[in-house]
Design a protein that fits this description.
- With 151 residues, this protein is α+β, with helices and mostly antiparallel strands.
- The protein contains five helices and five strands, in the order βααααββαββ.
- It has one domain: 4'-phosphopantetheinyl transferase domain (Ribosomal Protein L22, Chain A).
- The strands form two sheets. Strands 1-5-4 form a three-stranded antiparallel beta sheet.
């Protein structure tokens, strides 16, 4: 996107790091935590991977990064499952917003939301980029949760 064509656009970045062992301990000590923190699609994706906790940790970091980039949090009435991180058919992560997260994004006139996830050596990291501004009617339709095809 060429910001020079739309001077009213602005952006925000959020970053978060999660120690995989800490998330593993949280999930072990609190059996309902996975359901509170992750959507069914996120849990199913992670369960199908060789190291599920690494993938859940990356998604948890991604949710935090999205919250930070949007300038919202749990005090805004947003739940962890209002942000869903899935994978596009080509493998790149896609953030979907629902509930209060989607309403907050609409109020803030979010145009784009991109997220990057990574994990290695027991650490997960995520970065989110949000572009605000422009025409309101173009803003939010792209934030519906992505359901990857199973072809």
């Amino acid at each position: 996107m060429d910001a020079s064509l739309s001077p009213e656009l602005r952006h925000s970045v959020g970053v978060d790091v999660v120690i995989v062992a800490r998330l593993r301990r949280l999930l072990t000590d609190n059996p309902s935590a996975e359901e509170d923190l992750f959507t069914a699609a996120e849990s199913a994706y992670a369960a199908a991977q060789r190291r599920p906790e690494d993938h859940l940790a990356a998604r948890f970091a991604g949710k935090e990064a999205v919250f930070k980039a949007l300038g919202i949090g749990l005090l805004d009435g947003v739940s962890w499952t209002d942000v869903e991180l899935t994978s596009a058919p080509d493998g790149h992560p896609v953030a979907g917003l629902t509930g209060n997260a989607q309403r907050c994004a609409e109020r803030r006139n979010v145009r784009e939301l991109e997220v990057s996830l990574s994990h290695s050596g027991g650490i997960a990291i995520a970065q989110a980029l949000v572009v605000f501004g422009g025409a309101q009617h173009e803003a939010i339709e792209r934030f519906q949760p992505h359901v990857p095809s199973r072809d």
